[in-house]
Amino acid sequence: MVSSNELKFIKVIFVVAALWNLVGAIFGYFNTAYTFQNFFGRELSDPLYYDIYKGAWGTTFVYFFGYLIVALNPLKHTGIVIVGAIGKVGFAIKLLQFYLSGVANSVVLIVVIGDLIFMLLFAYYFLLLYKAKERII
User: Fold this and answer.
1) CA 30/CA 34 separation, integer angstroms
2) 119 pLDDT band (50/70/90 cuts)?
């Protein structure tokens, strides 16, 4: 069984994860062209690319709500965390590839580092569940 202190800590992790996603969504979804310019140093002028890029940030916005749901009952909503963690890893890897190839500016490292920190925290969450013999799926 997960202790009450561990449960409180897990809830804090997911409230902070939700806020992290909200900040990203405020920039990426609600100010798409500005975020693209800062990340990649070029204008986002193609309407199709604009919508695709905005849609990717829309997923970030959706996970703001997802992580809040997890914070309400972290023992129940593990599936949201699994899917969110996969997204965080994929996004961090792709942004890091863009940076290393010179396509993206160093500002993307904020997202890469932040998402990797959350990956470690999510791994800790799953470790606690496993040790407490809680159902993960």
Assistant:
1) 9
2) very high
